[in-house]
Amino acid sequence: MTASQSPTTADELRGVGLRVTAGRVALLETVRRGDHLGVEALASGVRERLGQVSLQAVYEGLHALVAAGLVRRIEPPGSPARFEGRVGDNHHHLVCRSCGVLADVDCAVGHAPCLAASDDCGFTVDEAEVIYWGLCPDCSTPAVPEHRDH
Amino acid sequence: MTASQSPTTADELRGVGLRVTAGRVALLETVRRGDHLGVEALASGVRERLGQVSLQAVYEGLHALVAAGLVRRIEPPGSPARFEGRVGDNHHHLVCRSCGVLADVDCAVGHAPCLAASDDCGFTVDEAEVIYWGLCPDCSTPAVPEHRDH
DNA sequence: CCCCAAAATTAGAACCATTCTTTTTCTTGA
DNA sequence: TCAAGAAAAAGAATGGTTCTAATTTTGGGG
């Protein structure tokens, strides 16, 4: 059979030269399933599948996955790092100033670096990272008549 | 005399409702004189003028100045915060992946939020922060025949 | 001009995300 | 199946930043 099926997570790991371990498979799938999760949340997700996993193992795994280009790290100023499985497309992010929620925005202008600096000062620019700051739909409606805890 | 001279630093502090202290005057002037300095460097600069000043005082002063809009905080992922005196214009930054050097870029498109997201997901966006990643002129020339101390 | 409330400063400890070190366990290719 | 090397565990350490409580300074009102 000509195996042209979508590759398994394990295959993907092997494909980028990483060893296949239960921890990494679970981690990668947790990142992809989740929506911009942080390290703690990812550790919880992995533990749900495997039982006990150390935080350091998660950090190490994330390092490897990010270095291999399978996972992208997002670090909005003022909050801990989050991770997403969408890589390759040079998309950007909306961050809510109030609750910290993160949303994806497609890149308006083609491919990376989707933006040219007006004067690059001699820099060799390879990526433009855009963060849109604002209020998410939930936080922008003030005093909605609804029970809230806080 | 109609005092239409450029206001003193002290006047500016008063103008935004901050108390005028030697520490804050020195801090604001150090930020403006410097080029994207970090907290330690700013503390050194202030100490050169005033003698002993605690790091916490610098943190506190920076908080106040940032909150008042006299100073802007920049926090490139992976490095400690830097501060600059250029505020009001919604300009962006070039960051060198190798040495971490930071340079200003004028905003290509008018005023904040100089960029509109292709789909804002219902967010109320008030600012677009752009970081151009690349290599600065010094770091992009490989193996220049010059003595370097790594 | 002096006093007082509010604000700034200090010293020191606490915090938290992340990294480092060392040892143990697991994956993989021979 | 074995050994080499990579990954994971455990625990401590790091570094930038913030918090707490006590002290000093600032600036307006008496």
Automatic annotation (TrEMBL), chains A, B:
Alphabetical list of CDD domains matching this protein: Fur_like (cd07153)
Keywords: Cytoplasm, DNA-binding, Iron, Metal-binding, Repressor, Transcription, Transcription regulation, Zinc
InterPro entries assigned to the protein according to its UniProt record, in alphabetical order: FUR, Fur_C, WH-like_DNA-bd_sf, WH_DNA-bd_sf
Principal localisation: cytoplasm
Pfam families given in the database record: FUR
Localization terms from the record: Cytoplasm
Recorded family membership: Belongs to the Fur family.
The protein, known as: Fur family transcriptional regulator
Natural source organism: Streptomyces vastus
